[in-house]
């Protein structure tokens, strides 16, 4: 147990020493970045000297506007180039992916959905027409079906054959002939 206590105490001491070193390194990096920033600003942005007359101020403003326009144009050009290259990268990666042919088809689930729900999902709030498929069907009257049934009974030749077949049918034919 004494060895364990010594090992954990040493481990904790090393850990705290590493954290202290890391904190000092972070402070040094922040200070170096600040100095680098100051140097860059001093190099690229000279101190602004405001002229006394109105005409000189207007000329200074025109120069600043021209610089701002040129910087905006450069920024826009670089953004467009970046968008083009990212689009090309996506296209090329898709082509590469297709050429490999190792794409997985996602597992599809069957979903029971009515036609109304499907149109509502596809069209959103634009869908107002109710698609009741049964409403478009032709309605059949019962009187028509009874007439058709009578016609079917008369015209069905199978019933006549069944009646004439066997001994009973011959007996009927014999009795009808007398």
Descriptive notes:
The protein has 178 residues and is an all-alpha fold. Among the domains are: 46 residues; 47 residues. The chain contains 6 helices and no strands. The chain is elongated.
Task: Give me some keywords for this one.
single chain, 178 residues, mainly alpha, 6 helices, elongated, Troponin I, fast skeletal muscle, Troponin
Overall average residue pLDDT: 79
Stretches where pLDDT falls below 50 for ≥5 residues? Answer: none
The backbone outline, from C-alpha atoms, is elongated
Cα distance, first to last residue?
A: 128 Å
How much of the sequence lies in strands comes to: under 5%
Number of strands: 0
- By DSSP (H or I, 4+ residues per run), the number of helices equals 6
Largest sheet, strands/sense/barrel:
none
H-E order: HHHHHH
The level of helicity is over 70%
C-alpha-based Rg, rounded: 47 Å
Assign the structural class, choosing from mainly alpha, mainly beta, alpha/beta, alpha+beta, or little secondary structure.
mainly alpha
Short characterization:
With about 180 residues, this protein is mainly alpha-helical.
Topology:
Blueprint: H1 2-44, H2 54-100, H3 115-123, H4 142-155, H5 157-164, H6 166-177
